[in-house]
Amino acid sequence: MTQTAETRPFEADVARLLHLMVHSVYSTPDVFLRELISNAADACEKLRHAALTDAALMAGDPDLKIAITVDPEAKTITIADNGIGMSREELIENLGTMARSGTEKFRKALEEKDEGKALIGQFGVGFYSAFMVASEVAVTSRAAGADEAWTWRSDGSGEFVIEPAENAPARGSTVHLTLREDHAEYSEEDTVERLIKHHSAHVPVPIVVSKAGEDETREIVDGKALWARPKSEISEEEYEEFYRFTAGAFDKPALTIHTRAEGRQEYTSLLFVPEMAPFDLFEPDRKGRVKLYVRRVFITDDAPLLPAYLRFVRGLVDSEDLPLNLSREMLQNNPMLAQIKTATTKRILSEMTKLAGKDAETYEKVWEAFGAVLKEGLYEDTERRDELYALCRFRTTKAPDGTRSLAEYKADMKENQKAIFYAVGENRERLAASPHLEGFAARGIEVLLLSDPVDAFWTRTALGFDGTPFKSVTQGSAELDEIPADDGDIKPPEPGHEGDMAALSALVKQALEDRVSDVRSSSRLDTSPACLVAADSGYDRAMEKIVSRHGQGGGFGGKPVLELNPKHALIKRLAATAGNGDGTSEIGDAAWLLLGSAEILDGEAPSDPAAFNKRLLDVMSARFAPEAVSGAADNIASDGGADGSGV
Ligand code: ADP
Q1: Is there a domain that residue 467 lies in?
Q2: pLDDT per residue over 572-616, tens digit each?
C-alpha cells in the first residue's frame, strides 16, 4: 500500500455536488454541524455493535463520546469521535464517491430546480455540507484495531489528498474544518453549544465542547436514550427534535407513537410518521428505515420490523429480550421480531386511523405524501386490507381534491348502484375526460379516479369494501340501465330502435373482423359515439397497460369490446341505415373510424394508423371538397381494412 501522499480527483458527481454546496447561497448553513455530529454518533454506534463480537475493538477507551473543539483565533472547529473510524480505502470510498443513492438523487434535484437550494434544508447531504462553511476540510481517521491512520483533505474543488496521518487519534475520526471568513461564528463556543442543544440534543452519545488551549470541557448532551425515559417527561419539542435527528429529516412528524410493550416480550418503540415524503421513497428496494436496538445498543437499520408498505415510518424499536449478537439470518427468521412486527404494524395503523378521525387536515398531508405506498398494503397484506381501505382517500369525480373515503363514497351511492366504480389510468386529466365516465356522470354516479401505478395492482385483487364490490368503468357491461339518471327517470330505450342497433352492431363486428371480440350497444356513454371496454371476463384495459409496463405480466386481457352509444345522432343514423339493410360499405368505413377514435381516446394510436388516416381524409374531403372524392369510399370498403394492406 502507498505510504505517501496521493492526490485524487473526486468522482464527477461529487465534484458537481460540492460545487453546488460551496456556491450555494443557502441561508442556514447551520445544518453542517448536525450532519457531522450525526456521522460521529453513527460511527460510535457502529463500534459499540462491532465490539459485541470483538471486545478488543473497544479496548483502552470504552467510553464513547464526541468531542468538539473550537478555536476562535484560528477560526476552526473540530469534531472528533472515538468510534469505528475509517481505513484509507474507506476514506476514499466514503468521502470521494457518491456513497448514497439518495445523495445522487438529491444532487439531480438541486441541479434541475431553482428551488433545489431550499431542498438542502429539507434533506441534508451528510458530510459534504461541511463545504458550505469551510474552505478546507481534513478528516484524520484510524479504523478501530488498525495500526495505521490516514488523513483525507480537500478544499472542495476538484480533488482530495490522501496521506499518512500525523497526530492521529488512537481510534476514530477527527473532522477539522478551517472556516471561511464569513462563517467564523462556528468557531465560537456559544454559537456551537446553542446549535448542538437545538439540533443534536438527543444524539445517543455524549457530546462535550471545549475551547482550544483550555482544559475545561463541558458536556452539552448526556447521550442517554430519550425513548427510555417515561413519556410524561418528554416534551413535544424533544420528540420533534429526536425525530429530525433519527430520520435525518427537517419536517415535523405528523404522528408520534411512543409505546412500551410488556408481557410476552418487553420492548419500547418510538415511531414517527413524517409529514413529507423523502425523495427516495420509491427506490426499488423498498426498505424500511426503522432502527433496531437491543438494550440501548444499536443493532441495525435493516431489520424487518415493518411491512414494506409502511416504509415511510421512521424511528426505532429497542428490545429487552433479543440477543445482542443477532446475525443476518437470525434477523430474517426471528419469531420474536416477527411478533414485534405484527404488533407494531397494528399499532401504527390504529394510530393513523385515530389521526384521520381527529385531525383530517394533518391526515390528508400524510395521505398525500404516502398514500401511494400505503396502497401497496391492499394487495400485500390481505389480513389488514379492511383497515387499509378505511385509511384510503381518493380523488373522485365528485372530489377532485382527493379527500374522499370509501365510507363517504358508499354513503352517497345511488339507488340500485351495486358497485364502487373506478377508472384507472396513468394520466389524471385524461382519466377525468374519458368517454367511459359519461354515462356515470349523466346519472350522478361517483367514480374513483385512480392514477397511481399501484392502483393497477390492488384493484386486480380487490374483492370489495364493506360488502360492495369494486368495478372498473371500462370493464364488462356497465349495468347502468337500472340506475336512474340524475333527473330521476330511467330513459327507456327508443322503441323500434333495438333491432336497428342489433343490425348495426352485427355489421360493425363483421367489418372489424378480429380486432374486437364483440360490438354492442351501451348505456355507458352519453355524448361520445363509441368506446372500448374489456370483455366481461377480462381485466381493465388501462390497468393491463400499466401492469405490462411495470413488467408484471399483463397482456392477457384478450380483445376489447367496442361499445356504441344508441343515443348518439351518428349512431342512430348508422343504425337506421343498417336496419334498412343497405349502406354496408359506408358502415364498414364508419366502423374503422369509430374504432380508431375510441383507441385515440384511450391514449393509443389507431391499430392501423395509415388506413385510419386515409379514411379520415376521405371523410374530410367529402365534407370540404366533395367534387374530388367521387367513388373514394368504395375503394376503401373493398380493402376490407382489417390489415390495411391495401393502403
Ligand atoms: P451518510 O452518513 O448519510 O451515509 P455522509 O456523506 O455523511 O453520508 O457520509 C458518508 C459515509 O462516510 C458514511 O456513511 C460513513 O460510512 C462515513 N463516515 C462519515 N463520517 C464518519 C465518521 N466520523 N466516522 C466513520 N465513518 C464516517
Answers
A1: no
A2: 999 999 888 877 778 899 999 999 999 988 888 898 899 999 999
CB of 297 within 6 A of ligand 1: the answer is no
Contact predicate 503/578, CB 8 Å: yes
- 431 close to 601: Cβ distance less than 8 angstroms: no
Residue nearest to atom 23 of ligand 1 (CA): 40
The residue-averaged pLDDT of 456-467 equals: 88
Examine the domain organization and report whether 239 and 192 are in the same domain.
Answer: no
Task: Report the domain count for the chain.
Answer: 3
Asked if 274 and 314 count as a contact pair (C-beta separation under 8 A), the reply is yes
Q: How much is the pTM?
A: 0.74
Question: In 10 A of CB 18, how many CB atoms?
Answer: 23
For residue 287, the 8-state DSSP code is: -
- My answer on whether 28 and 141 are in the same domain is yes
Identity at 228, one-letter amino acid code: A
Residue 39 near ligand 1, beta carbon < 6 Å: yes
Question: Is residue 43 lining ligand 1, measured as CB closer than 6 Å?
Answer: yes
Cα–Cα distance list, 308 to 244, 326, 550, 552, 613 (Å): 22, 21, 18, 18, 48
Cα within 13 Å of Cα(588), Cβ side = 18
Instruction: Say if 316 falls within a structural domain.
Output: yes
Task: Note down the domain range covering 622.
Answer: 498-636
Yes or no: say if 13 and 98 are a contact pair by the CB < 8 Å rule: yes
- For 528-552, how does the pLDDT look when each residue is reduced to its tens digit (9 = 90+)? 999 988 877 666 777 777 767 766 5
DSSP string, 12-30: HHHHHHHHHHHT---S-TT
Give, using CA atoms, the residue closest to atom 17 of ligand 1: 94
CATH number (domain holding residue 56): 3.30.565.10
What is the rounded distance in angstroms from the CA atom of residue 527 to the CA atom of residue 569? Answer: 10
The model's pLDDT over 271-292, given as tens digits with 9 standing for 90+, comes to 999 998 876 677 667 788 899 9
